[in-house]
Give the backbone structure.
Amino acid sequence: MQLEYGRGFLEIPIDGKKLLGILQPKEERGIERFDDTVKETLKKPVGSPPLSEILKGKKKVLILTVNFTRPSPKALVRPIAELCERMKLKVTLLIARGRHRSMTKEEIRSHLGDDLVDQYPVLEHDPFDESNHKEIGKTSRGVPIRVNKAIFENDVVIGTGIIEPSYLCGFTGGRKILVPGISHYRSIDLNHYLLLEKGANPGILDGNPLSEDSEEAARRLPFHWITYSVVGAEDQVVDVVSGGPFKAHRFACEKSKKIYSCRGKPADIVISSPGGYPYDCDLVQAKKAIIPAIATVKRKGAIIILAECREGWGAEPTFREWLTRFSPEEVMMKVKEKDFFSLGAHGAYLFAKPLIQDGVKVILVTNPEMIKDLKGTYVEAVSSFGEAMEIAERHTKQKAEITVLRKARRLFIA
């Protein structure tokens, strides 16, 4: 068996007698005539008049879109920009970076395409630029609604990107392009602090505190339209949904749920691959594969994460600090201190939680530099799958049953 790892694959030899099953997204065919499909949704949207009616009489349009950690959105953005162009509107593109690292000029050009980059102003959100945000109050949960002020300087704000399960916020897309996409870093941190509340799970919108907080903020901000692709396991577009930011988003999430919802028996050892690059580009991204693994592993079992992490820890310095400085017991206590909470803290928490609550050992198959960095921490990092299995079997038992999670970044256990 081969599982995605970096830009390639790892060979995973498993005794078939021990294998309970392979949980992975359902196979879906990509749509044909993608451009035509996008254009059709602009005319026949969900929960909204056609985009041309929304744009009528306006002058300036801001198109928000995703960064390199998601598939390229250029095929979604281009028809919208062309419609705006025909209607003589000024278009600006803003990459909703959240707290991910900034992109290089070359990455932006590859991600959006030469034609869009050459024709329109392209901005990238910076969550740490204090001068570039505007605050309009707080959500009912006390999270500041502090976002990139560009959305107040345009007549129409449009969100574009992909719909997929989100390991904390239920599903990506819609309200999430604003919070955390173009929010101030402290707003992002405090929104993510809600993960400590009940209901912060993939595949869940109603009762999910992070999703509800993001949506509450988005409903109080200028936000007029979305065009999103629903993607399958290989990032192929299986559907396109356009329309009102909230009704169309819900409609698209239901389509995504059918692809990524899985059922499986709990196993002693769970092998989880995020899905290769860019989904294992760094530990910030790769950690998402632990969520469905936690939902699948037995008490006192073991989780093996396959993640190359060629870019290291990711753009969260506190992640490294928390994971290398504190014991898992300390992390579980300190993460509750709201004033000290950060995205890095929540990453360390996700690795500590299965160990403290259920005695589950977490093993990371990764690159030599990460192995060196993680030495002495509560995450055991090794260079080969064979080493990881030896550790997992010692922790559990020689005849341990195994479940494999492929493309685990998007999976959720129903």
Summary: The chain has 15 helices and 20 strands.
